[in-house]
Amino acid sequence: MEELENGLLIQPWAWLQLSGDSLLAKAYIMTHKGYALLLSDLQHVWHEQVDTNVVSQRAKELNKRLTATPSAFLSHLRDLMCTLLEGSTDSGGATFSCEHVPEGLTLHVRSELSGLPFHWNFQCALASPSLVSQHLMRPLMGMSLVLQCQVRELASLLRLKDAEIQDYQENGAVLSRDRLKTELFDENAFLEQVVTENLPEACSIENGRPFAMKLQNLYVAVTKQEFQAKRRRQGSGDSQASDRTSSSETDGRLLNKPEQQSSAPSLSVLETLNMETSVPMQRPHVSKIKKKKPKGLFS
Prior knowledge:
By secondary structure, the chain is of the alpha+beta class. About 45% of the residues lie in helices and about 20% in strands. Helix 4 crosses helix 7.
C-alpha cells in the first residue's frame, strides 16, 4: 500500500462543489492495487485507502447485477474521478453526492457500467494528524518558504535594475516617454504596501477554491520534493546500485513523466490520476439475468 500513499502525496488538490458541500479533494487510483482518497472541508480531513479485496467485496454488495474484476471497477472509478476532479461538465450521466456520518464522510457515486446501473460509496473516516501534516501542513510551510525566497530574488533583481537605469542616466540616457519613469525600489515600503492591500483578500480563504485553482503547480513541486527526500532517506542504508534501481522503478510507476519536467511540474488531474496505466482495463462480464424480476439493489 506504500505505492498508494506515495502516489496520493504528489497529487494536486481539486475544488468540488457538491450540492451544499464545498470540498478539497485528491485521489490516486491503481487498477491492480486499489485507491486512496482525501477530502477536506477546511474543518475536517477525511481519508480512505483500500486494496482490491475491499473493492471486490464492496462492489458485490452495491452492484448485485454486475460481475467484473476489481481492476475493471477501479478503471471505471478512475474515469469517474477524473471527470469529477477536473470539473468537467460532461459527466456521462454520473452523479456525486456527500453524506456526513459519525466520524466520517461518504461520497456516493452513481453511474452506468456496461449498460447497467453502477453504485459506489467512498467511505472516508477522519484522517490521522500525521496524514493531515503530510498532505497539508508540511507542504503549505514549504510553499510559504518558496514564495518568500521568490520575493527576495525579485527584490534583488529590482535593485540591480535600478542600478542599471541609474548608470544609463549618468551617461546621458533619457526616456523617450515620461510615463515609463519609475521610482527607486524600496523593498520595505513595497512589502508594507503589499501586506496592507492584499492581506484581507489573502486571509479570505473561504472554501479553499483559490488554493486549488492557483497554487497547485507549486504544491505538486513541494510534495514531489518531499517524496524524493523520503526516498533518499529510506535508501541511505542500501547500496548505490540498489538505490538507483529502486528509485527508477518507483519514479516510473508513480510519475510516468520525463525527469527534466520535475523542476516545473504542470500536471492536470487527468494526467496524475492516469499515472498508473500498466494494467489494461478488463471488460466487465455481466452476469445473466433471469426472466424473473430481480430483487437486488437495482430492482
